[in-house]
Amino acid sequence: MKKVEATGKSVEEAVRKSLVTLGVSEDRVKVTVLEQPSKGLFGLIGAKEARVQLELLPDGVDHAVAFLQEVTDAMHSAVTIERDDGRDDVSINLSGANLGMLIGRRGQTLDALQYLANIVANRHSDRHLRIVLDAEQFRQRRRETLEALSDRMALRAVKTRKDIVLEPMSASERKIIHARLQGHPNVRTYSQGDEPNRCVVIAIK
């Protein structure tokens, strides 16, 4: 894990400097005092500052990243895993060659890995974590595909005056369809069926 060292007039000051460098709170680190401060002779000669080492302890997301690394290694898929901490969630992105196996059909494998990564992260965290797992912007491309599909099927429903039943989708994908057509003047949407075969219906208003 990442380690930093810092000096200060006191141990507390040195620790504060290190925390700023790491950008974390004190509960995320292990503190080792390497050298206590010394005033020296007459407070001048031989004076030494305190020196500390802070080691960043793994959090829930780190455990999730380690889990994903084990899975991708087991699948013999050479990927780079990057995390980006946001205000409400943590994004983890996979990049590399031959990511199709990790994404799966319509992102089903990626969704399964995301589900497991969230379980691992929250098992090692005292606060709720939400991880969004992506692979080279697959989710953005999938969103654009679904939005285009929504527009086409809504147009077909209006032209034929018949309800359109879409193929079964995950809850997150159904949400994209509902959001896209929420303000449509001529159609409404609802979900029907049971998981994993639950699907969106585009109906005439």
TrEMBL record:
<dbReference type="InterPro" id="IPR034079">
    <property type="entry name" value="R3H_KhpB"/>
</dbReference>
<comment type="similarity">
    <text>Belongs to the KhpB RNA-binding protein family.</text>
</comment>
<dbReference type="Pfam" id="PF14804">
    <property type="entry name" value="Jag_N"/>
</dbReference>
<dbReference type="InterPro" id="IPR015946">
    <property type="entry name" value="KH_dom-like_a/b"/>
</dbReference>
<feature type="region of interest" description="Jag_N domain">
    <location>
        <begin position="5"/>
        <end position="55"/>
    </location>
</feature>
<protein>
    <recommendedName>
        <fullName>RNA-binding protein KhpB</fullName>
    </recommendedName>
</protein>
<dbReference type="GO" id="GO:0008360">
    <property type="term" value="P:regulation of cell shape"/>
</dbReference>
<dbReference type="InterPro" id="IPR038247">
    <property type="entry name" value="Jag_N_dom_sf"/>
</dbReference>
<dbReference type="Pfam" id="PF13083">
    <property type="entry name" value="KH_KhpA-B"/>
</dbReference>
<keyword id="KW-0963">Cytoplasm</keyword>
<keyword id="KW-0961">Cell wall biogenesis/degradation</keyword>
<comment type="subunit">
    <text>Forms a complex with KhpA.</text>
</comment>
<comment type="function">
    <text>A probable RNA chaperone. Forms a complex with KhpA which binds to cellular RNA and controls its expression. Plays a role in peptidoglycan (PG) homeostasis and cell length regulation.</text>
</comment>
<dbReference type="InterPro" id="IPR036867">
    <property type="entry name" value="R3H_dom_sf"/>
</dbReference>
<dbReference type="GO" id="GO:0005737">
    <property type="term" value="C:cytoplasm"/>
</dbReference>
<keyword id="KW-0133">Cell shape</keyword>
<feature type="domain" description="R3H">
    <location>
        <begin position="140"/>
        <end position="205"/>
    </location>
</feature>
<dbReference type="GO" id="GO:0009252">
    <property type="term" value="P:peptidoglycan biosynthetic process"/>
</dbReference>
<dbReference type="Pfam" id="PF01424">
    <property type="entry name" value="R3H"/>
</dbReference>
<dbReference type="GO" id="GO:0003723">
    <property type="term" value="F:RNA binding"/>
</dbReference>
<dbReference type="InterPro" id="IPR039247">
    <property type="entry name" value="KhpB"/>
</dbReference>
<dbReference type="InterPro" id="IPR001374">
    <property type="entry name" value="R3H_dom"/>
</dbReference>
<dbReference type="GO" id="GO:0071555">
    <property type="term" value="P:cell wall organization"/>
</dbReference>
<dbReference type="InterPro" id="IPR032782">
    <property type="entry name" value="KhpB_N"/>
</dbReference>
<keyword id="KW-0143">Chaperone</keyword>
<keyword id="KW-0694">RNA-binding</keyword>
<dbReference type="InterPro" id="IPR038008">
    <property type="entry name" value="Jag_KH"/>
</dbReference>
